[in-house]
Amino acid sequence: MGTVFERIYEIVKKIPEGRVATYGQIAFAAGNPRWARAVGYALHVNPDPATIKCHRVVNREGRISPAFAFGGENMQRQLLLSEGVAVSEDGFVDLKKYLVDTFLLTQ
To answer: Given CA atoms 29, 57, 66, 90 in this order, what sign does their dihedral have?
Structure first.
C-alpha cells in the first residue's frame, strides 16, 4: 500500500482540476483522520508538484496558504484561479462550490 506520504500523494492526484480538498479529507482518505498535519508536511516536501497538484489543498475553512511552498506568496491563488476556482480577496475558497466529494478521494 506504500508509505503514508505515497498514499497522500496518490489521493491528492485524484483532486480534479477546478476543485479543492481539505487536509482533513485527504487524511481521512489516507486512512487516519488525525493525519491532517502529516498531509501538510507531505505536501510541503512534495517531490513532483507538476503531477501532485498540492495547490488544490486548502484548510478546513477553505483558506489558502499565505506563503505557498512552490512559488511563494499568491502562487496558490494564481494556480487555483487559472483552473477556474474563485479565491476571495482575503484568501478563501467557497467550499460549498468547489469542494470535491470525499468519496471520489477514497476510490
So the answer is: negative
**Domain count along the chain:** 1
Cell of 50: 507538476
C-alpha 40/C-alpha 46 separation (Å) is: 10
Q: 10-residue block means of pLDDT along the chain (107 residues)? A: 89 98 97 94 92 96 82 87 97 98 93
Predicted TM-score (pTM) of this structure: 0.93
Q: Residue 72 pairs with which residues in a beta bridge?
A: 68
Unique residue bearing C-alpha cell 498514499: 7
CA distance 70 to 59: 17
Active site residue ranges? 54
Q: Which CATH number covers residue 25?
A: 1.10.10.10
Domain residues for the domain of 52 are: 4-106
Give the span between the Cα atoms of 82 and 39, in whole angstroms: 24
The torsion angles phi and psi of 21, rounded to 5 degrees, stand at -135, 160
